[in-house]
Write a structure and sequence with these properties.
Antithrombin, Chain I, domain 2, three-stranded mixed sheet, 7 helices, Serpin_fam, Serpin family B member 8, protease inhibitor
Length: 242
């Protein structure tokens, strides 16, 4: 599990750097685990040079049992009886005229709890797109209503791999709405007043000298999960942190 965690962390950081370089003036919001899960399912069916290149990009050990590692990870993420709701769901949508290997479908189901559903992209492209969006909306409690925009799939589409993550939890130290106030928020280009939550309590905090950044941990109920916030010092170049 440690090897898988290190690989996922390395992949996430590399992807963040690439996205940051492409959209330097924009906010970046993405789920590294979602992307890893989807690509590792592709890796499950890859062989030869393709498999070697994918293992390098995903930062996984090609000689290790990465799929059993993900199986264990997904089982822990989707555990029940917690004070929070965290679910991650995978599904494959394949063109019905394609003959997908039964061993591939069985492995996706076994390791990633991902069923392969056959659709007719060739005949009913728009209906397939809406069907996939409906599945994602269901798994995310309606928070994501359109993961596939118009034109993202077509008659030549053979396989769509989808990952959906849903999280709902309460802070261990609750924020009172009446204390929300307007405070100064700085970006690399401007300063503006925005509404910010406020709470006076004891939290874990550290300072990383190398990147001139404060690190704050905000735990959720029972402290099983936490949000980690990084706050660079004033006048710190964000590209250095990224």
């Amino acid at each position: 599990m440690d090897e898988l965690r290190e690989g996922n962390d390395s992949f996430a950081i590399k992807l963040l750097k690439m996205l940051g370089e492409a959209e330097k003036s924009q906010n970046v919001f993405f789920s590294p685990l979602s992307i890893s899960c989807s690509l590792v399912m592709v890796y499950l069916g890859a062989r030869g040079d393709t498999a070697a290149q994918m293992s390098q990009v995903l930062c996984v050990n090609k000689d290790g049992d990465v799929h059993r590692g993900f199986q264990s990870l997904l089982s822990k993420i989707n555990k029940t009886g917690t004070q929070y709701l965290l679910r991650i769901a995978n599904r494959l949508f394949g063109e019905e005229t394609c003959d997908f290997l039964s061993s591939f479908k069985e492995s996706c189901q076994k390791f990633y709890q991902a069923e392969l559903e056959e659709l007719s992209f060739a005949k009913n492209t728009e209906e397939c797109r809406k069907h996939i969006n409906d599945w994602v909306a269901e798994k995310t409690e309606g928070k994501i209503s359109e993961v596939l925009g118009s034109g993202t799939v077509g008659p030549l589409t053979k396989l769509v791999l989808v990952n959906a993550v849903y999280f709902k939890g309460k802070w261990n130290e609750q924020f009172d709405r009446k204390h929300t106030r307007g405070m100064l928020f700085k970006t690399s280009k401007e300063e503006k007043t925005v509404q910010m939550m406020f709470r006076s309590a004891k939290f874990k905090i550290r300072y990383i000298e190398e990147v001139h950044t404060q690190v704050l941990e905000l735990p959720y109920t029972n402290e099983e999960l936490s949000m980690i916030i990084l706050l660079p010092d004033d006048n710190t170049d964000l590209t250095v942190n990224e």
